[in-house]
Task: structure prediction
Amino acid sequence: MAENQKSSYGWSETSGVSLYNKIKEDLKTAMKKKDDGARDTFRLIMGEYPKLTVSITLESGKKTTRVKTPEEITDEDLQGIIRSLAKSEKVMMEAKGETSSAYYDLLQMYLPKMAESPEIKAWIEANVDFSALKSPMQAMGQVMKHFGKRADGNMVKQVLKEM
Result:
């Protein structure tokens, strides 16, 4: 995938367009550019949509699920799908001894930027009162609650150990 093609792909929460619509737009763009790698990646993501379901109760009282409609799919749902695809690709890259792949890099363009160690450390210093805790590791819950999926648990743990 050429560098100039990559620049048209990607998403951020501040872009003003939903992740669902951005993936649809980027699939069309990839098809027009004949960018097979990107096209296949978007199709893979879209192929995971049926896994997004809503629980419903039938008239008989039986509980079941149905696939979410496009209007019901949230950015968080799609980020979860992309995260799982990226995680499995990362495992595959580690098994092959590779450090990067075009597929993995493209998936990362659709996820929120991960919190870096200095950002985590600054938030901890500003918001965590260690005098009220028995050990620094007890702050882990507060930190993970604040950063959510934007922070890697192992990185948070390392930062807390250093403090």
